[in-house]
Design a protein that fits this description.
This protein has 54 residues and is mainly α. Helices cover 78% and strands 0% of the residues.
């Protein structure tokens, strides 16, 4: 699965658990995908602010 899709679903649902349920993955899997995105992004600052709203 595309990590960006997982991230988008987390933002849409406001929850890692709900995103995982809608995508058919475990909460842990979705969390790991989003964490991988965070590692790849040059600015953790932007990511941190986005995640504050979740």
């Amino acid at each position: 699965m595309n990590h960006y899709i997982a991230f988008q679903k987390v933002v849409e649902t406001g929850s890692f658990t709900r995103a995982a349920a809608e995508l058919g993955y475990t909460q842990s899997s979705v969390s790991q995908m989003v964490a991988a995105l965070e590692e790849n992004w040059e600015s953790g600052y932007l990511f941190a602010h986005i995640m504050e709203f979740i």
